[in-house]
Amino acid sequence: MEPTFNETISNGGNPQEMDVNAPYAGSEFQYVYIMVCSFLVWMIIPGIGLLYSGLARRKSALSLLFQSFMILAVVTFQWMFWGYSLAYSRTAGPFIGDLANFGLKNVMAAPSPGSAWLPELVFCFYQLLFCACTVMLVVGGAFERGNIIPSLIFSFCWATVVYCPIACWTWNANGWLFNLPSLDFAGGGPVHIASGCSALAYAFVLGKRKHHGQQAHVKPHNTTLVFLGTVLIWFGWFGFNGGSTLNASVRAMIAVFNTNTAAAMGVLGWVFVDYFKHGYKFSVVGACEGAIAGLVGITPAAGYVSIWLAAAIGFITAAVCSLMQNVNDWIHIDEGMDVFKLHGIGGMVGSFLTGIFASSSISSLDGGTLAPGAIDGVGIQVARQLADIAAISSYSFVVSCILLYILKYIPGMNLRISEEAEMIGLDHHQFFEEQIGDWSILDMSIHGVVRPAAVSAQSVTPSSEKAKDHTVSEDSAATSSA
């Protein structure tokens, strides 16, 4: 029998007086499954760090690895402090929750608001990791020129005023998009569209990078890191989508299958476009971006569509994103991590296609959810999805801009590093003793012989650093090509 929530013991009861595990007897596999999915989702966070580190230039790569852990730390505190309550409190309004669960008050063993099969503590932890992944995506908009401390302050504020309200709209039983209803299985809106549009806002407010004519300005410095990051993201996405049923039903299994299918077809879609676009040549980074685009596209649809339609969603989303390769030039914003292209545009495509392809024959595999789309004769669902896209994209971009401008004009809150610091790189400017990769060819003695061209990291001048960066860029480009 399904556990039921009792308002008189909203925390699930006193474990010293009653057995709080009793309501879940015989169904423990449900919350164990979600905990395993949580561990998989956790892997996405360092995966994004590795991906971003490989896409950035070498001199700012370490800062992105560092931020993946720091953002997880900041968001964990925010979620425990008031984030969970603002997103998922049972007494929430249509736009944002209240502080009924402030400081995780009464969040323990009672059946969760997401699924009665899960203790609320398990549900809270799972959703915490969604928020952390989303915030990590957003800070990609500031790469190579965003000050780290202000970015962490922004992360806390952004999670509070952007992510939590949108999560409440979409997944809280009182949310206005939930009751519209729009269909968003695992985060096409709160995770992808919101992060893509907010990263675009971050890049817009900071302004373009200073590249000083460097040839590798838009080239990834380490394709291996990009590949490893994508592997962790793909692997983690099985938990991201597979756990979003919030139970271990057949629907969860098809969500996992759809996730792999869409990512694989995304690789084909992106590589197909690249192959003809770039003179019958391939790109490892392009294949990685295709996989991510496929994952983004299937996120809102994974538990609503059949396997072959998941393949179509992955292929279409990746092909569209690949064709948008020059979107940053079109809008004149230097969002070099492609967060808007992959997650913003990809999320919009996936959400739109969900409205077309969603079928009750798939959603009901969990034993009760009916979510028909246009393919089932409910054409109005496409309009609902468009309302979802418009609301989330506009809210996330506008509110992010307002928040960033407020922080920008607070005395001492330098959102952007100085031009000199940008020239030498975030790693030299904001870290001590640590550097990514082997810099010995430039600034160390090898076997007791000091190379004539060696440059000390402690005595960098703008002109010498420019030369050094150019040398490193060429070396990195050659490595990537190899």
UniProtKB/TrEMBL annotation:
GO cellular component terms attached to this protein's record: plasma membrane
Recorded GO MF terms: ammonium channel activity
Keywords, alphabetical: Ammonia transport, Membrane, Transmembrane, Transmembrane helix, Transport
Domain Ammonium transporter AmtB-like, first and last residues per copy: 33-432
Subcellular location per the Swiss-Prot or TrEMBL entry: Cell membrane; Membrane
Keyword Disulfide bond listed: no
Protein name, as recorded: Ammonium transporter
